[in-house]
Automatic annotation (TrEMBL), chains A, B, C, D, E, F:
A Pfam family the protein falls into: GFO_IDH_MocA
One Gene Ontology MF term: nucleotide binding
Residue span, Gfo/Idh/MocA-like oxidoreductase N-terminal domain: 4-123
Transmembrane segments: none
Protein's name in the database: Predicted dehydrogenase
Location of the GFO/IDH/MocA-like oxidoreductase domain: 132-259
Lineage, top ranks: Bacteria, Bacillati, Bacillota, Bacilli, Bacillales
Amino acid sequence: MEKLKVAVIGCGSIAIHRHLPEYQANPFVEIVAVCDLKEDRAQLRASEYNAQAYTDYKQAITDSKADLVSVCLPNYLHAPVSVFAAEQGKHVLCEKPMATSEEEAQQMIEASNNAGKKLMIAHNQRFVPSHEKAKQLITNGEIGKVYSFRTTFGHGGPEGWSIDGKESWFFRKEEAFIGALGDLGVHKADVIRYILGTEFTEVAAMVEASAKENSDVDDQAVTILRSEKGIIGTLTASWAYGAGEDNSTVIYGEKGMLRLEDDPAYGLIATYTDGSKVNYELGQIQTNDSGGQSSSGVVDHFVDSVRNDTKPLIDGEEGYKSLQIILAALEANETKKNISL
Amino acid sequence: MEKLKVAVIGCGSIAIHRHLPEYQANPFVEIVAVCDLKEDRAQLRASEYNAQAYTDYKQAITDSKADLVSVCLPNYLHAPVSVFAAEQGKHVLCEKPMATSEEEAQQMIEASNNAGKKLMIAHNQRFVPSHEKAKQLITNGEIGKVYSFRTTFGHGGPEGWSIDGKESWFFRKEEAFIGALGDLGVHKADVIRYILGTEFTEVAAMVEASAKENSDVDDQAVTILRSEKGIIGTLTASWAYGAGEDNSTVIYGEKGMLRLEDDPAYGLIATYTDGSKVNYELGQIQTNDSGGQSSSGVVDHFVDSVRNDTKPLIDGEEGYKSLQIILAALEANETKKNISL
Amino acid sequence: MEKLKVAVIGCGSIAIHRHLPEYQANPFVEIVAVCDLKEDRAQLRASEYNAQAYTDYKQAITDSKADLVSVCLPNYLHAPVSVFAAEQGKHVLCEKPMATSEEEAQQMIEASNNAGKKLMIAHNQRFVPSHEKAKQLITNGEIGKVYSFRTTFGHGGPEGWSIDGKESWFFRKEEAFIGALGDLGVHKADVIRYILGTEFTEVAAMVEASAKENSDVDDQAVTILRSEKGIIGTLTASWAYGAGEDNSTVIYGEKGMLRLEDDPAYGLIATYTDGSKVNYELGQIQTNDSGGQSSSGVVDHFVDSVRNDTKPLIDGEEGYKSLQIILAALEANETKKNISL
Amino acid sequence: MEKLKVAVIGCGSIAIHRHLPEYQANPFVEIVAVCDLKEDRAQLRASEYNAQAYTDYKQAITDSKADLVSVCLPNYLHAPVSVFAAEQGKHVLCEKPMATSEEEAQQMIEASNNAGKKLMIAHNQRFVPSHEKAKQLITNGEIGKVYSFRTTFGHGGPEGWSIDGKESWFFRKEEAFIGALGDLGVHKADVIRYILGTEFTEVAAMVEASAKENSDVDDQAVTILRSEKGIIGTLTASWAYGAGEDNSTVIYGEKGMLRLEDDPAYGLIATYTDGSKVNYELGQIQTNDSGGQSSSGVVDHFVDSVRNDTKPLIDGEEGYKSLQIILAALEANETKKNISL
Amino acid sequence: MEKLKVAVIGCGSIAIHRHLPEYQANPFVEIVAVCDLKEDRAQLRASEYNAQAYTDYKQAITDSKADLVSVCLPNYLHAPVSVFAAEQGKHVLCEKPMATSEEEAQQMIEASNNAGKKLMIAHNQRFVPSHEKAKQLITNGEIGKVYSFRTTFGHGGPEGWSIDGKESWFFRKEEAFIGALGDLGVHKADVIRYILGTEFTEVAAMVEASAKENSDVDDQAVTILRSEKGIIGTLTASWAYGAGEDNSTVIYGEKGMLRLEDDPAYGLIATYTDGSKVNYELGQIQTNDSGGQSSSGVVDHFVDSVRNDTKPLIDGEEGYKSLQIILAALEANETKKNISL
Amino acid sequence: MEKLKVAVIGCGSIAIHRHLPEYQANPFVEIVAVCDLKEDRAQLRASEYNAQAYTDYKQAITDSKADLVSVCLPNYLHAPVSVFAAEQGKHVLCEKPMATSEEEAQQMIEASNNAGKKLMIAHNQRFVPSHEKAKQLITNGEIGKVYSFRTTFGHGGPEGWSIDGKESWFFRKEEAFIGALGDLGVHKADVIRYILGTEFTEVAAMVEASAKENSDVDDQAVTILRSEKGIIGTLTASWAYGAGEDNSTVIYGEKGMLRLEDDPAYGLIATYTDGSKVNYELGQIQTNDSGGQSSSGVVDHFVDSVRNDTKPLIDGEEGYKSLQIILAALEANETKKNISL
């Protein structure tokens, strides 16, 4: 069988550390094009992966005869490049946050639908073993009715991750639109929707840009969410947890409590009201830190959905709903009102 | 020197487990009166502490010639009894939440001021060693500028603590007015104000009564606070953490992070951005669980402030400000707007 | 509703530490008779539990108008007393091993069947949380096809438990018939049948009486079992694990391994071939040691089965099958041949 | 002094990971010949160790003028190649199990005796520090009279170790003759004889081939052994412990219990009936896993015995006795009778 | 057989917590007399142990017809009372330090020798399991030649132990003569002599009285010792280790190091130059703290030596040699010279 | 700005593992000359660091136009080379011990003073985080008045570190003058002076050369020190702690105790008399073992002091005072008298 051809648009850290090696490791894919405005970056990856280098994304998408396109660009380019790719009949894997507005997100969904191609958003936290296990336990009713939760994602900021360090687009509002909320918060919005199997209908929030110099986007955000079933909880995102990354989620239910990624030894700890306790050692969470980053599962899932013509776990609609929560949080902060979804 | 005479009004759990034994252990105090509407409860404590039993609080306060009055009653009685006691020229130690409205709280303050007597609210968390140490570290600038925090207090509900179990006044709106927020949330509102040394100016919140049957008060509350200095954080309270009490606070700053009562071995863990970590084994937190409840520090502090005529650490004004946050949270939940303080 | 009346026959350790306190704690039962050949022992328990003391078991069973009879006697008396009680129309809870021969066991079953009454054998290990959880995991297919197992029960010998110490009937062949195999081995024969949900068809064994002086029964036994499904494993019993009790079971399957009561912290540890590991902190195993012997679950289950007229989990047939394995082991040791069941 | 010359026959995993590097590290030996039916394998090792490559074992043994011959071949070739080498006047180090029948083993012993040369069988477990320490403690009487034991060796199967993976000769009866029992069980038969300093006189066993596809040898074996002194115990071997290797031995005695290789931190734990406990951190056991495989001690011991003309610790007679146990287990399984040795 | 009669002279803490209960627990002894200058103390113990109370030690020793005398008095009375008792033909167990001068010690030895009776000094550290095990390991050559050591004994001071608290004779020079060195240092002088099996020939020291108010004896002492075999080491004693008792000894040898009472979990840790490490969990050390003070072993040993007419492990000569070291340390401090023994 | 030029004199282990890599890592320095009597050693480092190789130290110092000179030579050469370098107008960083006599040390100080250049002694222990933190805590009065201390430095000897192994100059008196005391003891003399902020006025000591063959210097030393403020403590140094390096210091004060480098997990543990305990995880101590030897801090501090023209933390006077203690210890051992400083 012939391999699927992929064009990776953007050669920053997410392409370097995730998309490119994961496509390379997938036996059904061939990397045919890499693209970056900075030609040297494109050339470097091209030679590493034996692909063609481009500086113009349109050329990269069309000339390369790619079947798949990975969009690894600053947030403000997610929508236009994804739409273009879909219009060219490509399956698209786009980084999060999906877009910078609801309108853009809708355009992406429509373009892919019109083309009859897949659109997937790279919310890798759904593939973390502790998240999958928690979803399974909740679905099976192991903790009974869910009452509340807290979920957070914070680290020291993108300067330690981005290829451009402190000069990264992450800190510029016109390119990022959203700061920690878009970088980290949207991950937890997506994964808490997924784990709880519910949609949120109300958002309150306070947002600050107090920790980073030379930045005009949010770096601290605390939000509260209410689900259609009356579950309430907090979702926080921060670029100022420099003393220790926190990617934890805690879920409180009638019969017990689940602690996810909240313990150095166990990915999941279930504690029950009957006094019993179950510790799960599962695979490690995917972080930006060094260490065993074998695979986030995102690329493999995307490729499978194309090969088997199945709906991706995080399709455009899913990405859209997770994005809505973050956009509502920003609006709640500005209007000082709770926002209904 | 003659001993101070105290009348303890209300013979429920808080009187039994804290006020009475702490007064008994204090060498400068003599328990002269105990009072409860249920005569047998009053008699039982009277014989235990060699005091006079009353069923009428006014008699208990006036006839006993008490110098001090401890108000250990359901929330809706805090204000009237405290005001009466102050008017009779007594120093008052009142349980939290101070009152059920701002007006009541103001009346209490005025009554004590007019009488020239002390009014203290029993926010014992200020005397927890880890809270005191955190305040000291923050004051000394050890973690630099504070960006955000999360603080929570949750357990399985007052039915495991109250002398009346599931029939407790804690679950009845007309007597309690506020549920988990008043029982637990106000503790954290008070202690986070104290630790950070700042006042909060904006509150958002969502509140639910989803976990307890036969209850018409809140049992889940998630709130967000913004300080005058732009610190944002979450404060949550719950009566549905049946699988494990949580009384933790985490504070994020420029140079490090403080984790309070968030680890089974260490009351305080300071982690710094330079990679160093300091673990503090301090005295244990005061909880309702069995175990080393030697003293909360509240009664001793109150007695000292009377003896030395010093301002109590948590006087009426302090109690009022902490109460305001909780009342604002309830209003925010109802109006779906952020409330300014 | 009227309480069920129980007569407890035999006032040795098992009656003192398990049957009597568990009946006492059960709200649906009244202890009406206690019986022991040594009158002072019977009197002591009679006064402790406000019951009638007997030295003649027939009288105790008939005169007391008991509904239930607990047989807490040396092994050689299990059958005659149980048969007598059944013939008198009593529900019978008999200690393990059920009997000293297959014939006796069959008589017990028939007598109860004829009377239309319950017969239960006190194999309490089925109620140990880790055993229950393991059965559930295996039933759910979590470890796939089971290949093999090892299960053991050993401690320092009955002299540390029996009311008669080194003079106990446990060491006399004419009263005990079987030593460690009957005291401990039959427990594991029963519980491994239960956990695996399979019957064993072949037994090989070696048995020794090498550790105890003044004893003429087996104190060491090593056996191997083959199930109808081709599962093979070892079952060992010993009265010479004086340096540390061992009550562990390990089960090896296609997808993982379960370790039960083999770790000081976790009652059950599941290790999977995919590298994940799940540690279960469950309720403690029931042992003869001091400590939290709240309840073995045996008496409550027996009472429930009588009250609801349901089949007891370990009825006569179940007890019989577990006994067969032990008897086969003794025969295998003597004949030096594998015994088919 | 001139170095001893060695010819290593067979270039599979055991030669690659043990024999070749250990000869290389021994200052008194020179590797002169490597031999494998697959020429490329022989060439690869020849160039790595600067030796001559052969595909014909007879040539390798004779032409190379080797003093020593290491037999690293499938089981069915152990005897013929060892006999040939001995007849050519070579000292022989043969892998375990020594042979596939008692007759073959006797021929090997005779051939070496006739040649006046050494024959050693590579039972490396005798050199494991915890095994040596246990032998010493038992010899010194530290645990008194030994009553019983259990010893096991199981892992996920030779497909993870053999150079041919799932196509390995280990799974083919005509080449391996014995499966897990010959691969792993014979190790424990040898080492338990050594540690206890006793011979076994009776064997019962059950053996299954239930876990591996495309295999016609045993992959599960449970056996029981009785020693001349009345010690009884279990010896198990398995290729289906995929969730975790187990190489443990537990020995129960009058005064205490020794646990060998049964704890992740301590190679040996001695627990005594007086309540004391001694934990030994010794050198690591030799396993097939990656990690510190500095040396099994086998090659060094063999070379020393040749250089000093001393009897090897595991000579032909020792290998023969350990082999007998395994062969008896297979016979016991087939005849369903205990086999006397 | 008739029981030995004992008179215990002095009813302070050492009598209350050690001598009296240990005599009581010994089946061969009857407490016939207790004596204290303070009559109420004597009466209290007399009624507790059913003995005769005395305030005059001579009467207590003679009138009671005691066979044994325990001297539990301030240091300056050790010699006169022991000498008197020996002269009356009594076996004497005297607390440490044996005496306040070499002359006194010699008189005690002579008096007992003349009477043909036993004299034992209560150096209980020789009976600590870790000390016994270390002596055995060193004697067996397990750590080879010994090079050096450090041994220390420090706690918060006798005020927490003595029946008189801060008013204790321990702090008065005319009664105690020696402070921490006599209370604690002499214990380690004795036990290090015992463990190493060597005598010390040279002592240097510095001593201070810097920590205790209202005390005129040493509370800090650091000394160095040289043995006849050239072993050098430090011995320290302190009454100012208020933040944690330290009773540790470390011994450095050619082949390894022994750490005694230097770890919370293990009484003895042996670390070897070959990288192996052995942890011993043995019985607990005897301290003045609360907890399992079943027996120091001293009284039982003394009684055995009288009953079997054997030399006590710590007879007068042994006590004398240990005392000499402490006296030399005081002299070294004063003269600023090393003292030869 | 132009880089400072450094000449490193001596190419043994201290140059290889510390001076050269630390100069290399410092952005303000350029290594221009390396010098060793053995030309191949000099050449090797010259090519590694792109410097000029010398065998004559005078040439290396003068011809290279170095600004800085690092003296990494045997002890007896410290003074002459440092003096020469100072006379040539160089800033000098000299290894410890500074010199082999007080006279030499004074000459070094004078030469640098005359030249107006820096002289620093490489007492790297002052830069260990736990030592710095302890100094800060003591200065702040956290443990109140200091009473006593013990400090030690021992390992298996310089043969495991020196480039010449057992043939090292460390073992030859004419080159080293002082053994373990000069290699290790002087480190602790310096650091304990620094931490306590006090000078010592009296030294007693015993010294032995009992552990090393082919050595004529001390390999065991135990000393006691008294400070001007009456603090007494022990300082020990050893080359015979082959079973485990010990670099610990314990300081006892009025309010608490500090344990430095005495725990595998925590660099500093503070225990207080109020029962609280604080564990510090700080940067690792600098040892000769493999592992994270990023930087000792010595070279960076030296370079900073030259660049900013500030007094180095360990200038000649400081090195001199630390040396005095060691020299006094040797004298005390010989004269058997306490030596006053």
